[in-house]
Amino acid sequence: MQINQNKLKQRLILLSFIASIVLTSLKFFAYYITSSNAILSDALESIINVIASGFAFYSIYLSSQPKDRNHPYGHGKVEFFSAGFEGALIIIASLFISIEAVKRLMDPTPIQNLAQGSGFILFTILVNTAIGYKLLSEGKRVNSLALVADGRHLMSDSISSVMLILSVGLIMLTGYAWIDSVSSLFFGVFLAFNGFQLVSKSVAGLMDASDENLLEKVVQTLRDHKKPEWIDVHNLRAQQYGSDLHIDCHLTLPYYWELQKVHETIHNFENILKDSHSGETEIFVHADPCLYQCCYFCRIDNCPVRQHAFIQDIEWTAASLVKNEKLYNEARIHIQE
C-alpha cells in the first residue's frame, strides 16, 4: 500500500512537471504574438510552476525513502520544505510581476493579437484546472503537503489566467490598454497571498505545530474502538511527515496485570491505530498503572481491586487526551457536577 501510494504521488507530480513545461512555452508564445504585460506576468509565474514541480518531484521521491541512521523518523519532512520553497518562489514572482506592472502603467506599450493569445491561455486554464484538481484531491487523500501545494499552485494559476482572460476581454471592449497592467498588478497581489499561505503552512509543519484535523482523526479512531481495559489515554501526540504517521501516548492499564498481557493489549492498541492509516505508522505507547481514582470511569467487570463503583464514562476529546495527566481529574469534575 505504501509503495503504491509513493508511486502514485511520483506519477502525479511528474505529470504536473511535464505539463508545466508545455504550458509555460504556450504562454510565452502567447506573449510573443500579443506583447501583453498581463500575459507576460502569467508566463513568468508559470516558470515558477516548472521549478516548483521539479523540486516537488524530488521531495516526494526523497520522502518515500525508508528511514535510516541519519533520519530515524524518515524523510517525510522534506515535503514541508518543498511547500515552503514553492511558496517563497511564488512571493518572489509576485514582487517581480507587480514591479513590472507599475512600470508598464507609467510607460504603456501597444497590445495586439489579443484574441489569438487568449485562445492559448484558455487552453492552459483547462489543463491546469484538471491537473491541479487531481493533485489537490489525491494530496488530501494521502496527506501529502507537496502534492497539495503544487495542486493549489496550479489552481491559483488557473484562477489568475481566468482573470487575465477577463482583462483581455475588457481591453477589447473598451480599448483601454491600462487595464492590462492593472490586472497584472492585482494578479501579483493574489499570488503573494497564496505564496504566504504555503510558507505559513510549511513553517508550521517544520515546527511540528499540531494538526487539529489529524489529531481529531486519531481520537475518533480511539473512541470508535475503545476497549474496557483501555482505562485512560493521555499525553497523546500525533504528527505526519509525508505519508508517515507518528503517534505516541500514555495508556493506563490495570496495575495488577502481568507483563505479557500488557504487551498484548498495547500491541492490539497499536494495530487499531495502524489500520486506520494507509501509510507507514510508527507508534510509541507508554503503559501507566491505574490508580484508585480511575475506578469512577473504569468499565472492567469483576475487577479484584476495585475501590469505587463505576459512575460514568469520560468523553475522550482531543483537548483532554493531549494533556499530560490522567483523566481522573476530568472524572472529578464530572462527579462534582
From TrEMBL:
Residues 212-290 form the Cation efflux protein cytoplasmic domain. Gene3D superfamilies: Cation efflux protein transmembrane domain, Cation efflux protein, cytoplasmic domain. GO terms for molecular function: cadmium ion transmembrane transporter activity; ferrous iron transmembrane transporter activity; zinc efflux antiporter activity. Residues 13-207 form the Cation efflux protein transmembrane domain. SUPFAM superfamilies: Cation efflux protein cytoplasmic domain-like, Cation efflux protein transmembrane domain-like. It comes from the Bacteria. GO terms for cellular component: plasma membrane. The keyword Membrane applies. Pfam families: Cation_efflux, ZT_dimer. Keywords: Membrane, Transmembrane, Transmembrane helix, Transport. GO terms for biological process: intracellular zinc ion homeostasis. It is found in: Membrane. The chain crosses the membrane at residues 12-33, 39-60, 80-99, 119-137, 158-179. Belongs to the cation diffusion facilitator (CDF) transporter (TC 2.A.4) family. PANTHER family: MITOCHONDRIAL METAL TRANSPORTER 1-RELATED. This is Cation diffusion facilitator family transporter.
